[in-house]
Amino acid sequence: MATIESGTEIKIDVHGHHEHEHHHEESFISKYIFSQDHKMIARQFLITGVIWAFIGVLFSVMFRLQLAWPDESFPILETLLGKWAAGGKLAPNFYYALVTMHGTIMVFFVLTAGLSGTFSNLLIPLQIGARDMASPFLNMLSYWFFFLAGMIMLVSLFISTGPADGGWTAYPPLNALPQASSGSAFGMTLWLLSMAMFIVSSLLGGLNYITTILNMRTEGMTMMRLPLTIWAFFFTAVLGVLSFPVLLSGAILLLFDRHLGTSFYLSDIYIGGQPLTNAAGELLQGGSPILFQHLFWFLGHPEVYIVILPAMGMVSHVLATNSRKPIFGYSAMVMSILAITVLAFLVWAHHMFVSGLNPFIGSIFVLFTLLIAVPSAIKVFNWIGTIWRGNINFTPDTLFAIGFVSLFISGGLTGIYLGNSALDIPLHDTYFVVAHFHIVMGLAAGFGLFVGVYHWFPKLFNGRQMNNTMGYIHFWITFVGSYLIFWPMHYLGMTGVPRRYFQFSNFETFNVYGDLNVFISIAAIVVFFAQFVFLINFIYSALYGTKMKTLNPYLSNSLEWTTPIEPGHGNWPGAIPPVYRGPYEYGKNGTDFVPQHLPDNAIWPKDEKETKTELA
Amino acid sequence: MSTVTLKRTQRIHPKKFALWLGIGTVIMMFAGLTSAFIVRRAAGNWVEFELPPLFYFSTLVIGLSSIALFFAEKAYKANRHLQYRNLLGLTLVGGITFIILQYAAWMQLASYGILLRGNPSGSFVYVISGLHAAHVLGGVVLLGFFFVRAIPKPDPVQELLSEINPERSLGIEMLSVYWHFVGILWLYLLLFFTYYK
Ligand code: HEM
Ligand SMILES: [Cu+2]
Questions:
Q1: Is the CB of A416 within 6 Å of ligand 1?
Q2: Which domain holds residue A301?
Q3: A308: Cβ below 6 Å to ligand 1?
């Protein structure tokens, strides 16, 4: 091997001997299970995330059945859930358990770990030109803590009192008192343990991402030459590192309240006329449930941006690449992510407008909340500017990226309604909020996940590509179907239909919307089945998909396409290519694209030439 | 094969950088807890009490152990290995004493009738100082690990190799950053408790 690297380069490499790495015959365990290769860890995150996604979405289909046909019985539910759906009808408390698990799984396991974990791991080293993460070992631990969190949550589904059922936000007193509901007993304890493991996983991952991006970029890769994906992962990690510890402290106090008789969040609770006491017989008093809301939403709001920023980054990257145009306003894109990151820490109380917030404080939070619309709008404008008159390749990844922009606009607009405290008072805890956050977060970030999977599939699975036809079918059903599910919910919410109700048929005012609920549920079921098109495509393509024939099938500028089709541990067999330019030089001076590693006066390296002529 | 010479500007070592970030997360956690304290205190129904005097002793002990570690690191850099080992041992003893003193302080607090259960003003002190002690315990485990490694090896060549190992020097630097941090964190917490009783 004739690789020549400087001394410092080797010193910062944790293994030090990367040039020889791919000569090792790695054992099955070190290659596939306790792997420290960032690409394998990315795969582990993705596959685990996809499995959780199917579980989480299946839960939502179950409770949509209940909402649409409250009087019907579904024997299949009894088959699946046993005593929780005796006679084929969902037990009311299990409805709440399903809603809670759905929310937790989707927000944390799918959209945080599955999305940011997968693509931060895959793309950070590949796109900045590094052999691996700063600490591959901590990176591996990050996955295994996530795995453990998932296992604990899974176990909680099967215990006799059932999983946590007090909502994904885990508000006390409901979730602080084991006697409050069956899921608030052992299920909630497991939920908290699982979240603690998850927080550790996120922190380990985040520390690594930030360190790697700041310290391990290849020669010439200045910060302002980073692909927008990397900027997005960077700020995502910053958000996580600053906000998850606060959630952890909130959760620790909750554990103390639940198990050690403190009353941080509990005060003057009467059950059946009797005041509640702790194990020592003392009155529980002096606590404040609002305190938990502050601690929770201090993470909770940044968390929604943790979910959406990686999707934004990937959408920006894919839109520029696939419309063969430079990204519109690169530095404005970076600045707006920065602004979103800063503002994300200043708006948490907009989730608490009706929790008894001082109205003066509320108005400050209204101001900051509405300010977030500015950087959000800049990003939307720039995405549209990017594809405007572009030479767009309408591949599934592009379609999902455009779908993302559409959803982000629709969902962002309703955010502005909710951000006004006066409007939020009637809309809070209605289906309007459900519509808002599913469109802007659930769907948009989900689309971001699809963008990433369709686009970077060859980098995930040894150069194999996904099938486009199935991609189109998947896109159109999902795109149209998602709007059909969530758009009508705005109307339900505006008429005051509350969220988290098990059944509406007993309410004069709300039972008139039965048909709409049936409509929504049918759309949900159709979209659910459409995801199997994706799943089949995913599994089939990972095993038998057509291999890409050139190194750079999308004629992309970024560095990940300079690695071999099946990169080994260490990514580049030779030296890491240095970088001479930004990542979005498309359509400049009559050339279709100029990869980042090409010097100004370069003669095209051999493989690039092949790529060019093959497509000419 | 062509050669690319990489000129890498000397940045902070990535592992050390990650440590600083990790310290940032710990700071956020305690910032979360102490702001919860302030928010809760402002809501009234707050029992005031005196801090147990043992807290001041433990502060002194962890401060001295920090100083010991500071000189231990100097000794290591100056290749005075015996002195390094002794000072490291002293730091370790200081760390263990600190944890014992914290425990004794909780007992003292309990003897005033301020229990973990009860008004949150007391619960906060237990929980926050307990979480801090857990971080100190992590440091103690690391100190113990470095202390064991500092015991000379019978084979002089091995001994020399391990003494000049750059990884180890980095480890000691990181350990001392962490240890000074938990000391300063305790000082902050003590001042916080004293000020905001
Ligand atoms: C223009 C930007 C946005 C504004 C002004 C905004 C505003 C709001 C407000 C005021 C609420 C509270 C509604 C209530 O509970 O009464 C809310 C809820 C929510 N928003 Fe947004 N939002 C915006 C963008 C986003 C984005 C980008 C995401 C995620 C990616 C998001 C995710 C959520 C979630 C998950 C909830 C509900 C949490 C729950 O109660 O379970 N929002 N939003
Ligand atoms: Cu929010």
A1: yes
A2: 37-267+283-615
A3: yes
Does residue A9 form part of some domain?
Answer: no
Dist CA B40 CA B36 (whole Å): 6
Q: Do B17 and A134 touch (CB under 8 A)?
A: yes
Q: Do A253 and B36 touch (CB under 8 A)?
A: yes
B contacts of A295 (beta carbons < 8 Å): 32, 36
A260–B116 C-beta distance less than 8 A: yes
The verdict on residue A8 lying in a domain is no
Which of A116, A304, A499 to probe ligand 1 with, by most ligand atoms within 8 A of CB?
A: A304
| DSSP 8-state assignment for residue A574 | S
Overall average pLDDT of the A577-585 stretch: 92
A64 lines ligand 1 (CB under 6 A): no
pTM of this structure: 0.90
- CATH number, domain containing residue A479: 1.20.210.10
B115-142 pLDDT, tens digit per residue, is 888 888 999 999 999 999 999 999 999 9
Q: Is B120 on the interface with A (CB under 8 A)?
A: yes
- Ligand at minimal distance from the CA of A297 is 2
Element (H, E) at B96: helix B81-111
Please say if the pLDDT value at position A18 is more than 60: no
Q: Percentage of chain A with pLDDT > 90?
A: 72
Tell me if chain B has a CB within 8 Å of the CB of A214.
yes
Gap between the Cα atoms of A402 and A268, Å rounded: 52
Which CB contacts under 8 angstroms, 24+ apart, belong to A329-334? A329/A378, A329/A382, A329/A385, A330/A224, A330/A228, A330/A582, A330/A584, A331/A224, A332/A378, A332/A382, A333/A228, A333/A231, A333/A378, A333/A379, A333/A382, A334/A224, A334/A228, A334/A231
Q: Identify the residue whose tokens are 């305790």.
A: B186
| Beta-carbon neighbours within 5 Å of ion ligand 2 | A 301
- Give CA–CA dist A359/A345, Å, rounded: 19
Q: Write down all domains in chain B, each with its CATH number in brackets.
A: 49-196 (1.20.120.80)
Which atom in ligand 1 lies closest to the alpha carbon of residue A376?
A: 1
d(CA A442, CA A429): 17
Rounded to whole angstroms, the Cα distance separating A176 from A166 reads: 10
Is residue A82 one of the residues assigned to a domain? yes
Q: Which residues pair with A547 in a beta bridge?
A: A464
Asked if B6 and A6 come within 8 Å (Cβ–Cβ), the reply is yes
Tally of domains within chain A: 1
In a domain, A607, yes or no: yes
pLDDT tens-digit readout, A324-369: 999 999 999 999 999 999 999 999 999 999 987 888 889 999 999 9
What does the pLDDT read at residue A603? 53
Which residue among A206, A211, A282 sits closest to B14, beta carbon to beta carbon? A211
Interacting residues of A394 by C-beta distance below 8 A, sequence separation 6+: none
